[in-house]
Amino acid sequence: MAFSPFSSSLVHPQLQHTVANMSLLDAIIFYIIHLVDKFGAWHRLPVLLGLAYLGMRRHLHQRYNLLHVGGSKDQKYDTREFSYRTADGTCNHPLNYLVGSQGRFFGRNMPPATSGYGLLEPHPSIIAKKLLERRKFVDCGKQFNMIACSWIQFMIHDWIDHMEDTEQVEIRAPDEVAEGCPLKSFRFYKNKKVQTGSPKPEIGFLNSRTPWWDGSVIYGNNNDGMIKVRTFKDGKLKISGDGLLEHDEKGIPISGDVRNCWAGFSLLQALFVKEHNVVCDMLKEHCPDLDDEKLYRHARLVTSAVIAKIHTIDWTVELLKTDTLLAGMRINWYGFFGKKIKDLIGHKFGPVCSGLVGLRRPRDHGIPYSLTEEFVGVYRMHSLLPDKVILLDIKSATSENRSTPVQEEVPMWEMIGKQGERRLAKIGMEQMLISMGHQSCGAVTLWNYPSWMRNLVAHDADGEDRPDRVDMAALEIYRDRERNVARYNEFRRNMLMIPISTWEDLTDDEEVIEALHEIYGDDVEKLDLQVGLHAEKKIKGFAISETAFSIFLLIASRRLEADRFFTTNFNSSTYTDKGLEWVNKTETLKDVIDRHFPKMTGKWMRCSSAFSLWSSDPTPRNCIPLYLRPASACYVLVSILACFFLISCFQ
Ligand code: HEM
Fold this sequence. Notes:
43% helix; 651 residues
């Protein structure tokens, strides 16, 4: 039903048309969130109201934004024959075995860009030089350390990578900036463009990784990858005697994904290979009849779920340090009433009460699961990477002396690829992990893009160095345009967020405003997504922009609720009793580190999460407001009311 009364002056003129096709209820929801956006900030609301706001936002996105790219007809199969994660991501969606498998299309959270600006408008090298390149390293304080930075790369390599074409393009820096660019020109492969066919002919891009949260970063994205990493004995994966990854004869690590790897990333791969292998030991001890194949399958399910859980209730909470998000992420996993109540009531009262994990059926909101172009766009966070890794001299540290001396500062480019693997082998897992825990990563802000990435030796899918170096800062601007991802303002409108009208709406930093003006003039529509995301004034506690967060909000839930192994099959017959118990008992990365390095966190980590600076103070225990503490009667009362409210909104 069309709803016109809200197309009034109370709604931003550029958003009025989006309300026109909404149902009455959705128009009211839109109006409420629009008012909150306009007159206040949802993150300053009391936690439950903030959660209601986020719930409503997510609801509108799911109904009006998700697009199905390259739709295919149902391809049925018997799900009972596939109670495990397959090597290439097939056989997860209950009605179509192809959904989410390697080589499927990226979806979209909004239509492709309509603005019609050219691929070189303004020139990517000018943006790289004048707005992105690091002048002086800006760190992100105590909030996020180098483990957190490596973690998100570890996740990206689990989910997304655009397939390339065989044709190359060359970008030449214009004279205006050529002097200041480490590469005056650089060549790279175009992304592979494919006609999608149905539902209507359009261009789409293919994902060479499996988008499920299936641990493909350690298990591989297809059969060949899976065979390479397995020992075929007791379900285990290959790992070297020093606890790091094994390497092939060319010095390339043996793991699920080896493209553009560096020492910190390969360290996390090794840690979770160790985790997989101890899960195999545990399962074998309790179920001696399980053969190699079954042990592998169960251990993969368990390890992937541990990774997904850590990302949801540990990493994300550090990324978006607000009470609302702390509550929201725990609700995604456990539901409103928390872990203990979920264990008692199961999923009888739906996702609001018991979270998304363990739902009776996967939910994709009518659009088969994939990750999206916009999701890739908002996760371009190379500014997190520093210029050097600061190695601590952990041997000379004493318990009295809290500030551990620095042993060496290694330039980042020496920690990449095969060279990085050799360095890591000398450093060892313990020293690297402790050092990364004590080093802040970069802030996602303008003028903080690592300069060394402007002259980068990228890798191909086999982990081999490419002959042509690339200017990543310029390339990333080009890539979003090549993929027709909406520019910043159109992106915001499509996400039902209030667009900017002047640079002052984006930021109050005078220097940024001047620089934007120099490059984009007064044309706010031209502003590139990357530049907007990096320039946007941040919400207190957020390490990323609110615009990026709006995509994040949608996809974080979708990765869980659309996956059969986090919903229908999140049970003991699929995971085994002991496997499920393992997932339930593991809450944080610290738990995993403690399992493999029993004395490490006790000695080296003061803070509460392994993702924040290890030398920082722990989060006070009573930081959660009274009405959010599961033990309080007030919590139960307010939660019941909030549940009724949310259920009546969305069901
Ligand atoms: C030393 C560490 C890293 C190196 C060497 C590296 C290098 C690269 C390269 C060469 C590409 C492909 C560029 C192209 O052809 O389009 C890429 C893509 C990407 N990287 Fe990184 N990266 C690193 C760390 C990170 C981190 C920490 C993040 C954080 C989120 C990240 C997020 C991404 C994303 C989202 C893409 C786009 C993937 C796609 O096109 O499908 N990377 N990176």
